[in-house]
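input
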Amino acid sequence: QVELVDSGGGLVQAGGSLRLSCVASGRTGSINRIGWSRQAPGKQRESVASITRGGFTNYLDSVKGRFTISRDVAKNTVYLEMNGLKPEDTAVYYCKAQTVYANDYWGQGTQVTVSS
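output
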């Protein structure tokens, strides 16, 4: 079992920045990949950024160059630094962990709202 607590969302003007945090607990040694997905009203959930155990990162095309995923292994924490935010980035952002056992775990979500 893996527990995820995500935080850091808020209201920001277009062009602004936010940093999301996701703290993992439980069987963190089983995590193979961890990252962030988002879901806007009326839209499907989409993967935004992820990082593997080996440190390889992957980004949604629309956030490349603006968002950066990083991790602090000692703190079992993953961060998503979001710069140059746009109104279309408005969504609930969820931390997601995938384990070596092919299980997915989700955080409770944190709202990001970008005003124009």
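quick obs: The radius of gyration is 13 Å.
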